[in-house]
Design a protein that fits this description.
The longest helix has about 35 residues, at about 140-175. About 75% of the residues lie in helices and about 0% in strands. Strand 1 and strand 2 form a beta hairpin. It is globular. The protein contains 13 helices and two strands, in the order ααααααββααααααα. The chain is mainly α. It has a two-stranded antiparallel sheet with strand order 1-2.
Length: about 290
Amino acid sequence: MAAAAAALAATVCAMWAFRGLPGGTVLFWLTPFPLFVAGLGFGLGSAVAATVLAALLLAVIGGGVPLLVFLLLFGVPVPLLLAAAYREGGISLSLPLALLGLWPLAVLLAAALFLADDGGLEPAMRRAVEVALARLGLPAQEVLIAGLVRVKAAAIGFWACIALLANAAGAERFLDRRGWLPLPPVPWSTVRLPGWYLPLPAIAAGFFLAAPEDGDAVALSALLMLLVPLFLQGCAGVHARVRGRRGAAAMLAGFYLLMVLFLQIMGPGLVGLGLYDQIRRRPAPRNS
């Protein structure tokens, strides 16, 4: 019953957005919430069943494109994150945090390989950006198009990761407040990446530096995607440093407001903080 209810709710959220109904953008990013509720409250099997049923409903109602978008952004990642989180006797968020960088990277590389015969991923992204600018009535300047093409894939991956993390946290709090959470919640500020993850952004940086200037969109997006878990760990570090202080809620609200306004400045700083905490804070968990 939990799986069926979650599947129906996720399908409504997704199709509301695909049909272009009012509030569809907000509901689209809430699509994984019922799937996380089913998985965290009733077990991994419930999340898998909900995802499969939602995929079948979307295939019947929406067709191929909505189904593909749902599976890539939410349908596959949610059960994957839950499967990585569940450990014997509890939950560990170390591997799920790493998957927030690895899953978008896998989708990016698969798309690049799939589109290799059609000129590669960058021309397809360029066409998508040109169509989007035309629909918005904005001038299609080459400088603007080139900049958007370089970061478009990374931006999609970033917001998908933020949506997954926010919905997972929201589902956990929703269940915990009602006494339906079978396992105690894990404080986000204590989460740390597995030790094997650190070399991956360095390898991606090497590929980016070696890529030609006019063909580095995939390499740049791969690097930015792999930095997202360190960025999130930096945010966790901020939470850890303000915990227990007077006015902690106001400080966190101001921090996130500044991050939204000055993401290009604060983003690298948070990545650096996450890297510092990864190296200096404490030993890596053995079960990661």
